[in-house]
Specification:
3 domains; globular; disordered N terminus; 4-stranded antiparallel sheet; single chain; Triger factor/SurA peptide-binding fold; alpha+beta
Length: 473
């Protein structure tokens, strides 16, 4: 059920869904009510269709009836949404608006113009935005409520061992193929010159803002590379602790309406404007730029790495020594270039030596896993001990760099063991515990929250049978 909810939250809305919604309006009926929220037949049918399409694209099907699965997912979402409102859960409204705008722009691009989209959906563009906003807002409330519940669950080493011991040895989870690798990274050699160019550009923007020639929000929408650009750079109100230190230090000095000097952080260069301050919450907007490089800026470290690779292949230099002397990666250079997850742990203020990982699954590469997909594309072409050619990539903060990787070891898929896969087992044990406690929470809320299901839908294939028990009360 939890996995299905995440699938539900991840499914994008399309023009076809909006058209279907309009089509169903005369024939539609309510099939369930959870708290103060109703679920229509068209809601269930649309979600079932989207789930089937997504799974077909991913190459698998579910054993459950899609209409039953969709209805249960929607009831769970409504339950979480209603509880979030009761608990006064806060969500990031700018994130909601960003998602809305992304989907609206995608639909406009699909149809070719705003006019074509309005004609196909039989709705004005502002109605489309409002419909999407309400739907996405409810999903985000539900997701945030679920995260609030599960984040309270912790686990200790003894529980990991018990989890492993209680698994039937013939049913041990299979750990997919993993990779251990090392790298040497180099930032562009003219980084300081590129930073200076970026800073000068931001100083020009600041001059235009403070002299009243151009609004801050206009420049943010035009030039900022941050996701907040859609909202004119506006961020959700947060305490100073919610911002990186250089940003927070500059923000603390501003009065409402004031614009900061150019601020450098690990994300790039910022201009910050304080909108207002209520208690400890700072409401601000910003413009974010990163340095850009010329072809020669990139080719210089590329050539240097190419020379290092040649020396290593001729045994004139070891990879470990080259990493220590030449790599710009502070997390790996003193360890022979061996790649760890320390950058990700530090980024989310979760550094703990016990959480150190040097083995990575395929899904660890990409935006969600923290390791560059460029790394995966390089190492899958290598045999153990081989080096890649130099290639362009970026670090966790999005800073451009050049690197070369060495595949140290491929660990074949195997049944999990405490000795080799403790961190993975810890993740599994924690997920299992969270699932159990979340199920118990859902059962408790089903028993206390108003739930009604139309009699003809009570025979649906629900994983949680309490939905029907509650509906009959």
């Amino acid at each position: 059920m939890k996995k299905s909810l995440l699938i539900l939250l991840g499914l994008s809305l399309t023009t076809a869904v909006l058209v279907a919604q309009k089509r169903f309006v005369m024939l539609d009926k309510v099939v369930a009510v959870v708290g103060s929220s109703s679920i229509s037949y068209s809601d269930v049918k649309q979600l079932a269709g989207r789930m089937v399409e997504q799974r077909r694209a991913e190459g698998y099907t579910s054993d459950r009836d899609p209409m039953s699965e969709a209805l249960e997912n929607l009831m769970l979402q409504k339950l979480l949404f209603n509880q979030a409102l009761l608990d006064s859960v806060e969500i990031n409204q700018s994130d909601v608006l960003q998602r809305v705008e992304q989907q609206v722009q995608a639909m406009i691009a699909q149809e070719g113009s705003i006019t074509a989209l309005e004609q196909k959906s039989h709705m004005a563009i502002f109605h489309i935005r409002d419909l999407l906003r309400r739907q996405i807002e409810e999903q985000v409330y539900a997701q945030t409520m679920q995260q609030t519940i599960t984040s309270k669950t912790k686990i200790v080493p003894g529980e990991v061992e018990r989890y492993y011991t209680n698994i039937d040895k013939d049913s041990l989870p299979i750990i997919a193929e993993q990779y251990q690798y090392a790298h040497i990274t180099m930032f562009p050699k003219n980084m300081e010159a590129a930073k200076l160019r970026t800073k000068e550009r931001m100083l020009e923007m600041r001059e235009r803002i403070v002299t009243g020639k151009t609004r801050f929000t206009t420049l943010a929408r035009m030039y900022s590379i941050d996701g907040s650009a859609i909202q004119g750079g506006e961020l959700e109100p947060a305490p100073l602790a919610g911002f990186v230190k250089p940003f927070a230090d500059a923000l603390a000095e501003l009065k409402p309406g004031q614009v900061s000097e150019v601020v450098e952080s690990e994300f790039g260069f910022h201009l910050i404007q304080l909108i207002d301050k209520k208690g400890q919450l700072y409401h601000c907007r910003h413009i974010l730029l990163r340095p850009t490089y010329t072809t020669e800026d990139i080719m210089s470290p590329m050539r240097e790495l190419d020379s290092l690779v040649s020396l290593i292949k001729r045994d004139s230099l070891t990879f470990e020594a080259a990493a220590q002397k030449h790599s710009d990666d502070k997390y790996s250079k003193m360890n022979g270039g061996i790649v760890t997850n320390h950058d990700l742990l530090e980024r989310y203020s979760a550094f703990d030596a016990n959480l150190t990982a040097t083995k990575f699954l395929k899904e660890d590469f990409g935006a969600m896993g923290g390791k560059s997909i460029d790394d995966y594309n390089a190492i899958v072409r290598l045999k153990e001990g081989e080096l890649s050619r130099p290639y362009r990539s970026a670090d966790l903060m999005g800073n451009e760099l050049v690197k070369v990787v060495k595949l140290l070891k491929i660990i074949p898929a195997h049944p999990a063991s405490l000795e080799e896969d403790y961190i993975r087992l810890e993740e599994m044990a924690l997920a299992a515990k969270r699932s159990k406690e979340f199920d118990a929470w859902v059962d408790k809320k089903i028993a206390t929250m108003y739930i009604y299901i139309e009699p003809e839908f009570r025979n649906a294939e629900f994983e949680n049978k309490n939905w029907v028990k509650s509906a009959k009360k």
